[in-house]
Design a protein that fits this description.
Elements lengths: L1 E5 L4 H13 L4 E6 L7 H12 L8 E5 L5 H10 L2 E6 L6 H6 L1 H20 L8 E7 L23 H20 L3 E6 L2 E2 L8 H9 L5 E4 L5 E2 L2 E2 H12 L5 E6 L5 E2 H12 L5 E4 L14 H7 L7 H17 L4
Parallel strand pairs: 1-2, 1-4, 2-3, 4-5, 5-6, 6-11, 7-10, 8-13
Antiparallel strand pairs: 9-12
Length: 329
């Protein structure tokens, strides 16, 4: 048996692959990633090196460089391996970039998901893979109802990125309805931690504190975010991959919103340095509040986030100091 992790060289994907390998349950972990240039492919290769260091025996991890939009490649992978689960983490991410190039976001996030769902559908009915999709809290749009509950309307996303993710969620229901595929959409809430993407706020604040450019601070930091440490997100994903739930949507957050200003101030305190911050009006693409209800994830997945934002910031800073500052990055 095998597990497919798409986007395995990325932030969440590399951590997920590491967790699966550490379990050492005899399954092959297949990582699929095209190493695109949304951010440095070298950083993604470094992520893969971290994954490969966890391999406990030959053949436990197989990396395939390829694109989820390549139907022929996806089909060959499903012919070669008997996947029991698909952890679909590959995506084009980023709010502003999706406004600039919505075609690319729909091509990757919707058509790529469709290719994977079709490959699962083509498996023998009794052994079809369990499908877990990485989605986003941004599908809730600018809602006034908090905390965000999975039954809330999610039909007013503010930019093409969350709109494409919501489309993928809906597509998953169609394949569950027509073909009985087990499909869980995990809506992430403001993930941060080691190996985070360079455009993420925690990374940018430390970069500024250590001589980098100023960081725009929307609304003077008076915005709440449900900061969720990467290890907790991965725990939810792996739990979802182990459970066949029919069709479900679950929030993966911490359930404790923290002001952006407080998050930044804590980063500065841990670093012992001040970042250069520029108060900037909140763009039309952003929201003032994210707040996950995690009751459903607790009930269905046994999900229980462990890492407070203070501990998470310390862990992120320790990684940044070791892998970015010492490396001259």
């Amino acid at each position: 048996m095998a597990i497919l992790v798409t986007g395995a060289a990325g932030f969440v994907g590399s951590h997920t692959a590491v967790r699966l390998l550490r379990r050492g349950e005899g399954e092959v972990v297949v990582g699929l990633d095209n190493l695109d240039d949304y951010y440095s492919p070298d950083r993604k290769r470094q992520n893969l090196s971290e994954v490969e260091r966890q391999v406990q025996h030959p053949g436990q991890f197989e990396f395939v460089r390829g694109d989820i939009r390549d139907r022929e490649l996806v089909g060959k992978l499903f012919d070669q391996y008997q996947f029991r689960s698909v952890l679909h983490l590959a995506a084009r991410v980023g709010v502003k970039a999706s406004i600039d190039n919505p075609w690319l976001y729909y091509d990757v996030n919707v058509m790529g998901t469709l290719n994977l769902l079709e490959a699962v559908r083509a498996q023998p009915e009794k052994s079809r893979a369990n499908f877990v999709l990485a989605s986003t809290s941004l599908v809730y749009g600018r809602t006034e109802a908090v905390p965000f509950v999975e039954t809330d309307p999610a039909d007013r996303p503010l930019t093409p990125y969350p709109a494409s993710k919501r489309a993928a969620e809906v597509l998953g229901f169609t394949y569950h309805h027509l073909h009985g595929i087990d499909f869980t959409a995990a809506r992430f809430f403001t993930v941060y931690g080691p190996r985070g993407r360079p455009e993420m706020i925690a990374y940018k604040v430390l970069g500024s504190a250590y001589g980098g450019p100023p960081v725009p601070l929307y609304n003077d930091g008076q915005m709440h975010r449900d900061w969720t440490f990467i290890d907790d997100i991965v725990s939810g994903l792996v739990a979802a991959s182990d459970r066949r739930l029919g069709y479900e949507i679950v929030n993966l957050g911490r359930g404790e919103p923290v002001l952006l200003a407080d998050f930044v101030e804590t980063l500065e305190y841990v670093a012992g340095k001040k970042a250069k911050l520029e108060n900037t009006p909140m763009p039309a693409s952003d929201v003032k509040y994210t707040y996950a209800s995690i009751d459903k994830a607790q009930r269905l997945l046994g999900y229980s986030p462990k890492i407070s934002f203070e501990e998470g910031i310390q862990r992120f800073y320790s990684w940044y100091s070791e892998h970015v500052l010492k490396a001259g990055g």
